[in-house]
Predict the 3D structure of the following.
Amino acid sequence: MTAPVRQYGFINAKLRTRLNKLFDEATLEKLRQAPSLAEAIQLLKDTPYRQEVSVYESTGDLKEVEAALWRREIATVAELRRYLQGTLLSLLDGLLLRYEVDIVRNSVRLWFDAHLKRRSIGGEAGYLYQEALVNPFSIDEVVNAEDFDALLEAFKLTPYGQLLEENRQDIESRAHLFRFETDLDRFFYRQLIESVDKLEAADKRIALRLIAVEVDLRNVDRIARLAFFYPPEKRSQWHIIIPGGSFSGQLLDSAVSVRKGEDAVATLLNGHYPGLDSFTSSSSEDSLGMVEGLLRQIRREETMKLLRGYPFTVGIILAYVFLKRKEIGTVVSLLNAHYYGVSPDRMGDGL
């Protein structure tokens, strides 16, 4: 088995080349300023996403373009498997689990809409990624399961059946998926941290730091949304906190109990993330948008720290996976903004 430092020597050169080909700000600005969706698509035809966006010309279906871009993102990450071995390969599988969890979430949502809410889901299942990533299950069997027991059967070879069973009452009697979806996120981060625990000490420290930042930001986002939409006395019933971040339980409880969403964000961020001490709870016409922009800024800065550090660490893999995800996510957001006629100045500088 190749030692991690020798694997890094090989993959570092490969990923540095790919990182240099990611969209720069000028390219994103051209996409943002494109006069129409058709012209944004045309710009993307001169990029590595030519094949994915060309789907729009033959179908006129933007959701099919999104699905193609998502498949491209998953393939980009999964392709790194052939360069990695041992603990680094386990880590990559931990990262791929994120996509599988999203597929499970989306397929169960479709089943929920079709069978419990009696809504038409049309051909929505066709947009989901169909190939096995980590655990084997069939999208068709999930979406077409006749009842809850059949749904459990569809996930019998995966850990997701147990998560569904544990949330059966909420799903069947209370008709909501929120707790199940939070449990999916908890499962993902728990598995990812287990894969990180096998890394060498320096890599483990780097990976846990990035995971903690991501979990912190997920919790900030969840608490802010809860605080924006529900008064403090109605928040305790929700099941929103994801373990694995750097905030203490006491600090998280304190943030959940404040009255305003902006105050919840200030409680968590001020003094905890250097450089963000200026964040205040002042009112804004778009407070939630301001919070989202702030979270994107934190995530971007943490990723760039990985690239500026010692090159032969797990940081290069984590940074590449994150930045590729961010690039494709930004492309999808900009295409949707053009589709809905959002003006360039309202598309957001954090995209």
Residues 36 and 341 are 8 Å apart (CA to CA).
